[in-house]
Amino acid sequence: MSRRTHRRVLAAACLWAACALVQAQQARDALALPRTLAPSQLSRDLGTRSAVLLPEAPTSAAPLALNDAVRQAVARHPSISDAIAALAQQAGGVDVARAGYYPQIRVGTSSGSNNSSTSNSANQSAATLATASVSQMLYDFGKVSGAVDQSEAQVRRQQAAVLRQIDTVAQQTADAVVMAHRYQALVAIAQDQVKAVEKVLDTARLRANAGISTKADPIQAESRVDSARANLLQVVAQQAQWRERLRTLLGRFVPAEVAPLPDERVADSLRIDMPIDRDLTDLLPTVLSAEAERRAAVAQLDVARAQRYPTISLDASVNKAMGGVNPGTLQRNGSYHAIALNLSSVLYQGGALDAQVRAAVAAEEAARMRVEAARLDAGDQARGFREQAIGAKARLGVLADRWRTIVEVRDLYREQYTLGTRSILDLLNAEQEIYQAAAEEEAVRHDLWQSRIGFIGATGQARSFFGLNDTTVQGMDLLP
């Protein structure tokens, strides 16, 4: 071994030892876990920025309508923006997969010693080579096309995720509007109750001061007034809670009044009493997402099967020695060109190819079952909401008759108490019954609307009902 070669071997050994020491130190450092947690320092390390300002709807004093609230919420909610950004990311994956159809061009430089078989010492020197190569896939039995199909299926899956997120935000907003309207109505009923019981208290005081009734009557009435006022404060607090929920979704101050919910003519267009058929579930985002996963699994199976077959490509390369002897031509500063038709195939991988095919077959079967499970869940939810709506609608008629009957009884008790033939407890209990009947009727009416909203979400009618079709949501055009 020559002295030069000996020095090179020694230098390579030293370099290898230094790299080994660095890697060992890095491994020890990785095992040394930090023992402190400081959110402020973590924020500085991550470069956390201030919150992004979300778009806000223009402030309006007009009553807040259901459909307007839904459109305002989906126009600004960040979860929809997140889903749309993920869709753009998936679309980029399609371009990456399609790149397999096009030539792959590589350039680079390399340097090293050259020891040719000739005895000419001029041909034994270090050489620096500039290289360029082009490889064009000619036929691969469906490897690239399968990868493209798989990426396109992922794009469709993310499109379904965007639709699902839009439907989720729409349903959350609609539920918040219904609840805010519920407590708006309950506040009005509770205020009427306070006024009615205060009127009874005034009557009891007049009778007690006149000596017609005992001093116990005003005390009992005053206790009921305090109870009615406490109930009013509780309902007002619940109304404020749902108005704050609306403020979060809409990004602005909520108008003082929530507009009446759509009339029965609009509600009847939902066809809640119609049978739930398979066609209603075809356009559901959950079903579309599961179907896209099945398509991706089929494409994965095609790719796995194509791996068993060779890939045919045309390769061309050229290199030029920028200094020293070109090893291909044995000429100083020489150039070398090559073109070849290559056929490459994996003959054995320890059974990995067969395992990939079996896994892809199982994935396709699992995805197909997820499609059926999504249809089953959607149908079950739709039928459940439908039965709730039908039951609530039937109860409304009974509750309305109950309220009218109790009002007649209250009026009769008021006259009898004035005449001294009825106790004040009967009159106070009648007032309490009126409040409970009115509150229960409003609760059932809004339960009916919540069931309707759940039904349209379970059957894929949300975007149509809320007027989101043929509109643009955060840059995405929504079509039926």
Give a structural overview.
The chain has 480 residues and is an alpha+beta fold. It is built from 11 helices and 8 strands. The strands form 3 sheets. It has a 4-stranded antiparallel β-sheet, with no helix packed on it. The radius of gyration is 39 Å and the shape is elongated. Mean pLDDT is 84; it is low at 117-123.
Question: What shape does the CA trace take?
Answer: elongated
CATH class designation: Mainly Alpha
CATH topology: Outer membrane efflux proteins (OEP)
Question: Order of helices and strands, N to C?
Answer: HHHHEEHHHHEEEEHHHEE
- Number of spatially distinct domains: 1
The CATH superfamily is known as Outer membrane efflux proteins (OEP)
Strand order of the largest sheet: 1-2-3-6
Structural class per helix/strand content?
alpha+beta
- Oligomer designation: single chain
**Main sheet specs:** 4 strands, antiparallel
Rg, rounded, reads 39 Å
| Helix amount | 55-70%
Total helix count?
A: 11
Intertermini distance: 79 Å
Would you identify the CATH architecture?
A: Up-down Bundle
Taking pLDDT < 50 over at least 5 consecutive residues as the criterion, the unreliable ranges are: 117-123
Question: How many beta-strand segments?
Answer: 8
Overall pLDDT, averaged?
84
Beta-strand content estimate: 5-15%
